[in-house]
Amino acid sequence: MQRDHREQLNLSWQANADAWTAAVREQRIESRRLVTDTAILQAVLALAPSRVLDVGCGEGWLCRGLAARGIESVGVDASQPLIEVARAADSPRARYRVCGYAELASQAAQLGRFDVLVCNFAL
């Protein structure tokens, strides 16, 4: 049952990746534009990290924001289409990997060490 739910969720993200990417990049979600994106970025920056893991990174907005400030980031997400658009944005200090929660738990050591782990707007 849980596997079916995960598969349905992943299929949903695959089907909606382009629409989600456009909504985020064009700042169509008012709560994110006015409050939450800035609050999340400021909360991470307040910790003065040199390396951040963004779990459920989606199209990579946070990794790009951190990279623009000289912070190395690794974004992981179970959605291949979202990781592809994140990679296409080509931030040199940001790397992306297709990785669901189960894989993350078993492969975390391969990603390296991080000062901060962020999981925002992720299911």
What does it look like?
By secondary structure, this protein is of the alpha/beta class. It has one domain: 3-Layer(aba) Sandwich (Rossmann fold), CATH 3.40.50.150. It is built from five helices and four strands; from the N terminus they run ααβαβαβαβ. α1 runs parallel beside α4. It is globular and about 40 Å long. The relative contact order is 0.19. The model has no long low-confidence stretch (mean pLDDT 85).
Draw up the topology in text.
Elements: H1 2-25, H2 30-46, E1 51-55, H3 61-67, E2 72-77, H4 80-88, E3 94-98, H5 101-111, E4 116-118
Parallel strand pairs: 1-2, 1-4, 2-3
Helix pairs in contact: 1-4
State the gist of this model.
By secondary structure, the chain is of the alpha/beta class. It has 5 helices and 4 strands.
